[in-house]
Amino acid sequence: MGSKRGPDTEDEMDLGSRLQLTLLLLVQYNVWSSADQPVVPANAHLLSLEDFGLVSNMNQEGYPSDCYEIYQTSGGSSKDGLYVIQPMKVPIIVFCDMQGGGWTVIQHITANTTIDFDRTWHDYKQGFGSVKGDHWLGNEYMYQLTNKGGNYKLGIKLVDMDAEVKQGEYEPFQIENEEAQYKIRLGLYEGTAADALTQDTEAYLHDNQKFTTKDRDNDNYFENCAKLEYNGVAGGGWWYDACAGANLNRKNVIYWQKDCNKDHPCKYAWMMVKPTESGKQMRENSCQRDEL
Question: Which residue intervals define the domain Fibrinogen C-terminal in the entry (predicted)?
Fold first, then answer.
């Protein structure tokens, strides 16, 4: 197995880039906080400068903690689109699925996307792509969203080449912090899609797995699963076991057991989160395998 490194220590954005973006946003979009201090979302690199004008609540005084809060406050009248939320200390930009009832999108991929998902630990930590389209929101922000108080659930949406839609939910859902290697925690599953994360037919169990990238090997295989290729394309970062019953970050084959694979290709996939008050608990027995 690859070496196990400690937590990443790189800054969210280098100081020069943040200062430049701050000035541009101030000039073009008058981005200010209530304290007359410039507010630049921590993941501003996930949106081009010209697209900041599409953010619905950029100059709002006090940001909601997630898309569901926006949905509730609006009485369900909010539209799908880009919003600023603040789950913990810093605001971030996200895409909100309001038609579905206020889901915060944390991942979206299109088959054969031009966005490179074969990224480093730092990239997966801070996010990449465009929140308008294909992207990974960032493990750090997934951690913040699911640990700010209250339980969350994970929604999966898959669309195949015939436009057939499969969906599923894991409730509750949590991403642990970077010290814990952004381990995934999953509760019970229900939906029309296969349960590919906690009940795989090939015995790959993703619940309680640490996150693995090409430069940080936390999986249970003798090789780094993120580096293994299919038709010349590496797997990308994921919560691998040894290796996967699901992987929504391999751009040439979106994989979700029988629902999405090389023989039954899918065109789109989404991962989304939303608060839940059901009181369901995490699984009592860890699915973590002993490391090789």
Answer: 58-277
